[in-house]
Amino acid sequence: xxxxxxxxKPKGLTSHxxxxxxxxxxxxxxxxxxxxxxxFACGLLILCLGKATxxxxxxxxxxKAYEGTIVFGKHYDTYDTTGQIMDEKExxxxxxxxxxxxxxxxxxxxQLPPMxxxxxxxxxxxxxxxxxxxxxxxxxxxxxxxEFDMKSKLSTNQFGFYTSVSKGTYIRSLAVDLAKKLNTxxxxxxxxxxxxxxxxxxxxxxxxxxxxxxxxxxxxxxKTYPKIALNDYMIKLVKxxxxxxxxxxxxxKPFIVIDEHNQMIAFxxxxxxxxxxxxxxx
Length: 282
Prior knowledge:
Layout lengths: L2 E7 L5 H12 L4 E3 L8 E8 L14 E9 L1 E3 L8 E4 L6 H11 L1 E5 L8 E2 L2 E2 H6 L9 E10 L7 E8 L5 H11 L4 E11 L2 E2 L15 E2 H4 L5 E3 L2 H8 L4 E2 L9 E4 L5 E9 L2 E7 L1
Parallel strand pairs: 3-12, 15-17
Antiparallel strand pairs: 1-3, 1-14, 2-3, 4-11, 4-12, 5-6, 7-10, 8-9, 10-11, 12-13, 16-19, 17-18, 18-19
């Protein structure tokens, strides 16, 4: 089985838990995921199976959309309500203030990732350091908030939201940053990932219901990619992992090499001007 599965991850499982369960259920040796979803969160998780595990990086640059709930008044070490309460401050704002603060976060801004994240500092993941009680200096990163809107009214210091964001955005940090603008504290109490790029939760299967026929095959995944046909001599070199250059093509985007019988041989990505690296040999 080589391809991708769209899974609706339930609340309470880690992304690794899901990989383990699908591996056991479908009897597949090689499975990976394309981006961690926190245990307290649910929603879309894309898994790579077999040869497709080499393509996980292709999903890292995709935009994402979420819905969830933010609760005000308390600061948690994890930036969500599963953590330890570190501080408290009574919220003193109204719904109009909230909408204005949400609007002010739309666009690009420098976001500080939470300590409880998988980002590495000096070779160690931040959450591993956080579990030791450490709070280390970390760099902000530019993120973009395309949409950030209320889905339910502010009630008992909490509200439901919808947001669509660029790669690398932490929704837990977005909640904390929103609270700062309102001179209080906040945390996520729920989160549901709705989409990754053009892949949507409505098309995902549960762990219990997923089956081999739900696999997005490599043929389907690459059907819209440009195809470059090469002769038998070059095909032998391609199968051995040769890099390509302007002697074969001058295309400026990723492509599929096919043989004279229209069979997919390899997937190539652009690594420089007229320089192409094989990312996957079929």
